[in-house]
């Protein structure tokens, strides 16, 4: 498992650690670990609340976090408040299944059951259950990962973003009145 962000209250990483503590040490015969990518004012508190530091790994800020995310079976966004959810896009770009809380960004991006799983923010038992469900069901995990990657490429990928930006500038230029030159 992987999660990434600034370690502040609204990002819900304490909820994630509480949910992770509810999960078994192994699922499907595979050991369960959590990579916490990031840093922030709550780092010491989060480290202290991690019940098993042999299974929870704090990486600090990484210049290139995507290779770490790509190694995960599931990416978790436990935010209490999330306006957009860039981390969801980053996980999708790596073909990783996503579990996210029902924030403005999460519900805008994710079609629950198709491109990820959504669960209520601050609901530790439901977050744990959603993560366990994805990890226990290889077909679900593959479907969420594949659908998320497809959705990312067709709606948020580099080509789509460049096309949308160019269309925006064309609209702006089209709305500017022609400037008359004096002779």
Describe the structure.
The chain has 183 residues and is an alpha/beta fold. It has helices spanning 13-22, 43-49, 66-70, 86-93, 104-109, 124-136, 138-156, 158-174; strands at 2-6, 26-27, 30-31, 34-39, 56-60, 74-77, 97-101, 117-119. The strands form three sheets. The protein has a three-stranded parallel beta sheet with strand order 1-4-5, with helices on one face. The protein has a three-stranded parallel beta sheet with strand order 6-7-8, sandwiched between helices. A two-stranded antiparallel sheet has the order 2-3. Strand 7 (97-101), helix 5 and strand 8 form a beta-alpha-beta unit. The mean pLDDT is 94.
Label this structure with key terms.
183 residues, alpha/beta, 3-stranded parallel sheet, 8 strands
Structural class: alpha/beta
Total strand segments = 8
Largest sheet at a glance?
3 strands, parallel
Instruction: Determine the N-to-C terminus distance.
Output: 68 Å
* Spatial arrangement of strands, main beta sheet: 1-4-5
Mean pLDDT: 94
- Given as residue ranges, the uncertain stretches (5+ residues, pLDDT < 50) are none
Please give the radius of gyration in angstroms.
19 Å
* Proportion in helices: 40-55%
| Percentage beta strand | 15-25%
Number of helices: 8
Question: What global shape is seen?
Answer: elongated
């Amino acid at each position: 498992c992987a999660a990434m962000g600034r370690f502040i209250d609204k990002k819900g990483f304490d909820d994630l650690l509480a949910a992770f503590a509810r999960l078994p040490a192994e699922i499907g015969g595979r050991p369960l670990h959590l990579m916490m990518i990031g840093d922030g004012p709550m780092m010491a508190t989060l480290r202290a609340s991690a019940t098993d530091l042999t299974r929870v790994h704090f990486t600090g800020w990484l210049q290139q976090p995507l290779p770490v995310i790509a190694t995960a079976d599931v990416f978790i966004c436990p935010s209490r408040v999330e306006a957009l959810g860039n981390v969801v896009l980053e996980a999708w770009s790596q073909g990783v299944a996503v579990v996210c809380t029902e924030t403005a960004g999460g519900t805008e991006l994710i079609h629950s059951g198709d491109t990820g799983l959504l669960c209520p923010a601050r609901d530790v038992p439901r977050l744990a259950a959603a993560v366990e469900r994805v990890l226990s069901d290889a077909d679900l995990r593959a479907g969420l990962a594949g659908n998320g990657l497809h959705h990312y490429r067709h709606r948020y990928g580099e080509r789509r973003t460049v096309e949308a930006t160019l269309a925006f500038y064309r609209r702006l230029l089209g709305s500017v009145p022609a400037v008359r030159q004096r002779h």
